[in-house]
Structure formats: C-alpha cells, structure tokens
Amino acid sequence: MVGIIQEQHPDRARLFMQWKQMGWPILVDSYDLLEAPHVPISLAIDESGVIRKVLPAMREDGSVSDDFLEESFGSLRGGPSPATPRPDAAALHARAQSEDTAEAWKAYGDAIAVWGGAGRVDQAVDAYERVVRKQPEDGMAHFRLGVAHRMRYDSDGRRSGDFQKAVDEWSAALKVDPNQYIWRRRIQQYGPRLDKPYPFYDWVATAREEIQARGEDPVALTVEPRGSEFASPQRDFIVSQDAPSEPDPLGRVLRDEDQFIEIEAVAVPARVGPRDVTRLHFSFRPIQRTKAHWNNEAEEMVVWLDPPEGWEVETRMYSYPLPLEMVSLETRVIEVEIRAPEQLGRGPISIPGYALYYVCEDVTGICMYRRQDLEVEVRPRR
Q1: What is the reported pTM?
Q2: How many CB atoms lie within 10 A of CB 185?
Q3: Distance between CA atoms of 143 and 191, rounded to whole angstroms?
Q4: Whole-angstrom distance between the N-terminal and C-terminal Cα of the chain?
Q5: What residues contact 250, with CB distance under 8 A and at least 6 apart?
Q6: Contact of 209 with 215, CB cutoff 8 Å
Q7: What is the pairing mode between strands 312-313 and 301-305?
Q8: Is 290 helix (H, G, I), strand (E, B) or coil?
Q9: Which helix (H) or strand (E) holds 75?
Q10: What is the DSSP code (8-state) at residue 107?
Q11: How many structural domains compose the chain?
C-alpha cells in the first residue's frame, strides 16, 4: 500500500501518521501534479504497475475487493516499462527561454517543483508567473504558483507579500475551475469560520499528547498551525457587545520609526462580496537587522482596528498573550474576522488600525513602548 497526499505542509502528515501508527509509504504532491479534482481516490494497481480500478474511496475496512487481490494479471508483454528518468531541468529551462511558451515554462516549473527542492522555489515562482501571464485561464498554473509562494513564505527566503500572493493565486485558480475540491480547501484552511467545512488541524494537540504518552517524541513541525487552522466552523458572524476603550485615541504613543517590528497584513480571501466575511492575518516579526526582541515584562501587545463605516468586526481590540520568557523572538500572529457591508464600491477598501507593543534592541540596550500603524486592503469581488 502507498498513499499520496496533497498537503501543503508534509510534516503535518508525518505527525498524523506517527499518531495513528501508519507504516506504509506516503508520497507528497503539494503542487497537485496528479491534477486530482477531489480526495479520496483509490487506485488498484496490479503487479506490473497497471491501474486496474479507480475507486471513489476505499471500503470502510481499508481494503479493495477480494477478487482483485486474488487475481493474477500476468506480466506485461516485453516486461515492465522502464522507470521515467529524472527531467533535465537545465535543458527544460533552455527550451523555455528559447520557445518562451506557456507549455515550455510550465514543464520547467513542474520539474523544479518536484526535483528542485526548497532551494529552487524562486525559479518555480518565476516559471509559473510566466505561465499565468501567457495563459490567465490556466487554473492549475495559478494553483501551483500559489503553492510556490506559500512554500517560500514558510522558508528563510520569505519575501514580502508571499502569503497574500499565495491566497490570491489560489483564488484565481478556483475562479477558473470552481469544482476543484483541493484548491478550495487550501483557501478555507486560512479563511473565515463561516466558510470552513471543519477545523483543519484541531487534532495536533491530541496527537502530540498521545504520542508522548507512548514514550515517543512527536514529529517536529516546521510551521505550526495558526488560529485559522484550528478554528471550528461557525454559522453566524457574531459581533461582541462589549465596547473596548481605544488604547491610544490621541495618537500620543511614539511611532516605531526605527522599524524594530515588521508587520505583514494578509486578507483571506482578499476579494469579498456584500456581507461576505474575510479573515485578516497580522504577523509581527522582530527585525534582525536592529537586533530587536520582545519585552515580556510589561503589558500584552494589542491591536486596534478602525474599520470603515458599515464594516463589522468581531471586536475592535485584540491582544497577544505574553510568553513566560522575559524576552523572546517569536513571530506573533493575531487573526481578525471582518464582514463587509451590503453596499460595496468598486475600488479597494483599506482597513486601518495600529499595534502597541513593548520592544527592546540590543545595539544600545534600550527598551521602549511603541506604536505602529497598519492597514490591510480588501477588494470587491468581481
């Protein structure tokens, strides 16, 4: 038995397998190179590697039918087919540059995606960007470009805007083909609760506890799931009845002009219709260049939102719980859900706000209380 997953983060699948004590091989197809429109799909493959049956799902006991298991299909005439050779990425790149067609750039991008590793994700992004420019209706290329952007976002080579571009490309793919189950799930993973089919990774804490109880070390995750990935579905958008007081209404807290903290704002999805809900992701990272770190000996970091008239937000003020350490370097993420009004204009809408936090820097050893203004852009859905 062998499995194939379309998971963006393969180590999460490894943790699940360890938890459930699954011993068979699992292959990874984050880019959906199989072009599977939905899961699960079960394939019954004979001893010569020929797919004999395609089943919507395995039987409840996890097996295929007995008649397939008992039958011998014999050897292929001429013996088994030779293994597919590893593609020559350099030759494919030369061909793409020479022909400059969507087909050639896609072939190069697919080769890099499979064989290039994390170190060549920049080339995968470039290749797929060329494809979607030449063929805007290629939904698969949009999806794979989104996967590459998210992979780069999760790496040390992260570039500003990678997360938002990933979501935008997945949305563009789904607009081309709204029947793609996997593409839709990739957006819902980070999106609002009203659009969630289930909590995607609520099992992680239980898995770790049960693995440790067996005396094992749980598989380490390169990227920990975010709040949106734990969140349960919600049927109604609920606005808090409490009206918190604005923490800096007169704007007297000094601005973080030295950029000790970098802020990234992402909307999932970035395009909304009337009364639609989107989930805003705000990430705060200490900047290594200034040797900044969080000061956890004072109050919690807070985010205040001031949405435009007609927009509803669950609550206007959010806080981030302080870690136990006196100082820390973690990336802090605050997620907010906001609902659009009945009437939307045609242009982009800016959702403004600001963050207040305590931060220190190691160059002069100064600790300070600072404010940084923020905004995220949401666009009307066409």
Answers
A1: 0.90
A2: 19
A3: 16
A4: 45
A5: none
A6: no
A7: unpaired
A8: helix
A9: none
A10: H
A11: 3
Distance of alpha carbon 327 from alpha carbon 298, whole angstroms: 11
Domain range for 13: 3-70
Query: What residues form DSSP beta bridges with 54?
Result: 43
Q: Which are the contacts of 103, defined by CB distance < 8 A and separation ≥ 6?
A: none
The pLDDT tens digits of the residues spanning 273-332 come to 999 999 999 999 999 888 999 999 989 999 999 999 999 999 999 999 999 999 999 999
Distance, in Å, from the CA atom of 366 to the CA atom of 316, rounded to the nearest integer, reads 30
Please state, as a whole number, how many other Cβ atoms lie within 10 Å of the Cβ of residue 118.
12
Domain end marker among 127, 156, 188? 188
Q: Which two tokens stand for residue 69?
A: 């298991």
Cβ neighbours for 214, distance < 8 A, ≥ 6 positions apart: none
Q: Is the peptide bond before 82 cis (omega within 30 degrees of 0)?
A: no
Going by C-alpha positions, the residue among 194, 353, 348, 195 that lies closest to residue 271 is: 348
- Token pair 């960007």 is found at 129
End position of a domain, from candidates 150, 173, 188:
188
